[in-house]
Amino acid sequence: MDWQRQRREGGQALVLALLLLFIGLLALFFVFSTGQVAATKARLTNAADAAAYSAALWRARVLNFDAYANRAIVAQEVAVAQALTLVSWSKYFEHFTQNATVLAAAYPPLAPVLEGAAKVATQARTLTEIAAADEVFWRAAAGTGYKEILQASQEMLHLSAGVFGAGAVANEIARANDPSFFAYALTDAGEFERFTRRYANEPDRERIRDIVLRSLDPFTAGPRSEDQILWLLPSSCVLSFNDLSAWFQLFRKRGGTVLAPGLERWEAADTGSLHDNRRSGFLGLSCRRREMVPLGWGAVEAGSPNAAAILANPGNVAANPRALTAAVAEIGGAGLPGFGSYGGISRVRELNYEGLANRRFPISSLAVLARVEHSAVRTANTLNLGTGRLRLFERFAGGRLWALAAAEVYFRRPPDAGPGTEYASLYSPYWQARLAEPTVAQRQAAESYVH
């Protein structure tokens, strides 16, 4: 009896031992698989965060490129204005020295000096005109100028920062973390497309014009005006006024550089004339300043087609009408084609303020969904550990492991930029990237992909 009982108990112990071994193996496989899933999930999440941040950083760099390009485009416009100013001024100085030579005939010792200055002025004007025509062509020619190339590069880079381009960056970063990972940017329903736009119509371009005009140096912007009383030359109305300056003749200098109406041409003009106070009115009892002798003049235009005229009266050059007429007669200069190549004020990319929720500090967000196939997760099942009831089978959504990450592009002035508040624009390269919590809409979009 004792032998039989011991035999039965020994059989029960064996069954219990086998059961405990079975449970232990299941637990070991479960712990191993769970650890592998958790480790892969952690690596996938980190890769998704890196991918989202990198895609946002690329988008921030594209916006910063837009800002640098816009600044460079403004600089091209300023350079065109400066080149025209130099041409107009050199023409003015050339004619002024030539006329001064004629007037100095009454004083022979001064004539050779002025004749030499006139020859130098003519050579300087010729070289300045040639250099300015080339500069206008290379900087601002329609279709081929440097600013046109900058505008085209803005459009191409903008395409690379959209959902497709951001997804390509995200996938490259994810695969760099693990070749089995795959990542892509979720659609944003055109949010980034509406974030900026090209300012192409005339009201839009007036904003660019205002920025260009504010960027001009004082001499170029003008007015280049000066009134000098010639105390040694009495006027025709001596003793007619209480104002002593009215007894003498006046040298009136006027000049300026402007964008003519229509935004398709620059004009620069300089005039200088001698004005006399001449009697007028009934019985000649009143006196009025009138142009007597034009002394210097110069004008130049850049636009296509050339108007052969001054349309905007820069710096009130019309105050010297005879000098202005002489300047317009030579506005074409040597007929250099570079001046006619100017393509008008630029069409740049800028924030679409009308479509922004926050016009002062807008944010562009994006979400990245990363995944890895279940076969790439080294669980007990994928390693073929166990058989029959010892085989564990994992269930993944869509047969894959997923991770969602989000980032956003924002505008912030750097701490070392000095005091003050600066609002977002595509003229300041202060766009940065940061990780963010996925929004409800982004989570819902991710769920639609997963299921």
Mean pLDDT: 83
> Number of helical segments?
9
| N-end to C-end Cα span | 64 Å
CA gyration radius, whole angstroms: 39 Å
Instruction: Report on the biggest sheet.
Output: 4 strands, antiparallel
Q: How many individual domains?
A: 2
* Helix-strand category: alpha+beta
Summarize the helix and strand pattern as letters: HHHHEHEHHEEEEHEEEEH
C-alpha geometry: rod-shaped
Low-confidence stretches: none
Strand content: 15-25%
Helical fraction: 40-55%
Which sequence of strands runs across the widest sheet?
1-8-9-10
In total, the number of strands is: 10
Describe the secondary-structure layout.
Elements: H1 2-103, H2 111-140, H3 146-160, H4 163-177, E1 181-185, H5 191-195, E2 196-198, H6 202-215, H7 218-221, E3 226-234, E4 248-259, E5 265-280, E6 286-303, H8 321-329, E7 349-351, E8 363-373, E9 400-411, E10 431-436, H9 440-450
Antiparallel strand pairs: 1-8, 2-7, 3-4, 4-5, 5-6, 8-9, 9-10
Helix pairs in contact: 1-2, 1-3, 1-4, 1-6
Please explain how this structure is put together.
- This protein has 451 residues and is an alpha+beta fold.
- The protein has 2 domains: 33-70 and 156-198 and 360-450, no CATH class; 79-153 and 211-341, no CATH class.
- The protein contains 9 helices and 10 strands.
- The strands form 3 sheets. The protein has a 4-stranded antiparallel β-sheet. A 4-stranded antiparallel β-sheet has the order 3-4-5-6. Strands 2-7 form a two-stranded antiparallel ribbon.
- Helix 1 packs across helix 6 (202-215).
- The radius of gyration is 39 Å and the shape is rod-shaped.
- The protein starts with a helix and ends with a helix.
- The relative contact order is 0.16.
- The mean pLDDT is 83.
